[in-house]
Structures are given as C-alpha cells and as structure tokens.
Sequence to fold (352 residues):
Amino acid sequence: MPRLPTPLTLPAGDGRKGARRDGQQTHDQDRDRADHAAGAGERDPGRRRRSPLRRGETATAWAFITPAVLIILGLSVIPVAWSVLLSFQASDLVTPSRWVGLDNYRALSQDPNFSQAVRNTLLYTVLYVPLSIGIGLALALVLNRRIRLVGLYRTLIFVPFVISATAQGVLFSFILDPEFGAANSVLNTLGISPQGFLTDPGQALLVLVAISLWSGTGFCVVVYLAALQDVQPSLIEAARLDGAGRWQLLRHVTLPAMTPVSVFLLVWQTINALQVFDLVYVTTKGGPLGSTTVIVYFIWEQAFKNFTAGYGAAAAYVLAVALGLVTVGLRLVRGREQRRSARPVRLEGAGK
Fold:
C-alpha cells in the first residue's frame, strides 16, 4: 500500500505575520481614503488644473451660442411680445402710442374691409388647397411609372416651385396684361373675346389661384413621389394576388399608406394659403375693388400704408389664432384616426 504524502503546513508565526501585514495594509488604505476625502482639493493639483479648463470650455460654448440666442430673441421673441402689446394700443409707429384695450379687436369685427379680406382668403384657401393636393397626387401617380424621360418631366414640374412669388407675379402680369399680354393674343387667335384677367373683379382671385397652382403643385408632386416609393411592395403584390385592380390598389393600399403625408400636405398648404401676400402685392395690390385683398395684405396695408399699426397687429393675431386652430384641429383628427386604426378589430361571435 503506497504511503500518503505528508501535508504541507505553514508555521504558526508566519500566519500571524501575514495577518498583521494584511491588517496594516487595510488600515493604511482606510487612512488614505479619509485623507483624500478631507483634503482632496489641497493635495490634488490635477483638480485645480481641471477647474479653469472647464470654465474655459463653458465660456467658449456660450461664445458660440450667444449670437444665435440674440438673433432668436431679437427677431422672434421680442417682436412677438411687442406686437401683442401693440395690438392693444393705438399707434402709428411715429408718435407715442395710446392704450385702447380691446377696441382694435372690436373694430375688426365691424370692419367690412376686414370681412371681405377674410372671405377672399377663405375662398382662395378652399380652392387652392384641395386642387394642389389632388393634382399633385395625380401627377405623382403618373410620374411614378417607368416611362421615358421621367426625370425630365419631374424636373419641369418642380421648377416652378423654386421660382420666387415675386418673379411669378411679374411674369404673369406681362402674360395676362389685358391689352398687350400673350394670353389675350392666343384667345384672339382662337376667336375668343379678350379677358380682363387680373383687372376683372370676377376673375382676379381665380387667376391668382391658377398661378399658385402652377407654382405650388410641384411641391406636392415631390412629396407624394417620395411617399409612393415608400409603400411596401409586398402589400401591393398581396393585393394583386387577391385579384385587386388598379382602383382597389389605390383606394385600399396606396392611399391609406400615405395618410400621414396627406395630412402633412393639408396642414402645410393650408398655412401657406392663409398667409399668401407676395403674389397679391406684385400683381393686383388687393384690387380690383378689393376682390383680391387677403388677410396678410390687409395687415400690411393697415400697418404700413394707413399707419394704424395697432389695428394691423390685432388683425395679425386674429390670423395667428385661426392658424393655431386649424393646426390643432387637424392634429386632433389625425390622432383620432390613429387611435381608431390601432383599436383591435372584434370579429362577430368572438365573445360567444
């Protein structure tokens, strides 16, 4: 039978020394931590060096941020607050103003010129917004196919959008001139009597809507093209396998997938239509007989032509409240649709 190895043991004295050594190290570490906590700032030169560095970084950051903050305050916050106070005053921007309270708003409610401007703006919006979105969707559906020179067609449709409204107004003022314009020359060649266009009270606003459609539809086309290319091909293939035709695909697959885009365009085009000004200023200046006077032009006319700045500021805040209500209303409708679509569908007889 083999002998078992003799176990190796340490002497009793060595174990006590090791224990004392470990205890001494632990005590020294605790003392070092206490000293570091008590006077870390005095014995850590690195901390003293980092503090000025952090102050320098903070000063540099504020040096970069301050110009933007001053621009935002000077061009946005302060003018908004000042115009709010101005809407409760009678001011011509030259002589000292006088506090009138809500008198400017009461006068607006009784002003026939303001009522006409509101009607013109609403009519322009009702005509322009649905037509621009509908025509944009139709053109996007056509240009989404694989046809020759499709890139050229897309570019030609989008080019009018990047032209400024001032340039558009000058261009169409020459084209639609009742005496020397190219439009009446073409109509004369076709045997149609000359038209007044921008000088006819019954046609001027409709002509402005047509000019806006020429320029603003390109934006809707580009946005809808991007949305069409984002529709999942698997959904379209599944609908085709189920026997869906072109109209069923558009109604039940494409349009529901583009609902967020349509809501965005509805809000965007509505805000732009309610704020139209430059095209009116260049072409008709609110005429003839006030038939093209819109709200923003009315505000400009009161503030900088009639020098009733307080009255114009009150009209501006009526427009601001209207824009806010339109945006909030569309957001609520969109949120209700999202909640309805997210609600689980309950099949008949499921609870039985």
About this structure: The radius of gyration is 36 Å. The longest strand covers residues 89-90. DSSP finds 14 helices and two strands in the chain. The beta strands are 89-90, 98-99.
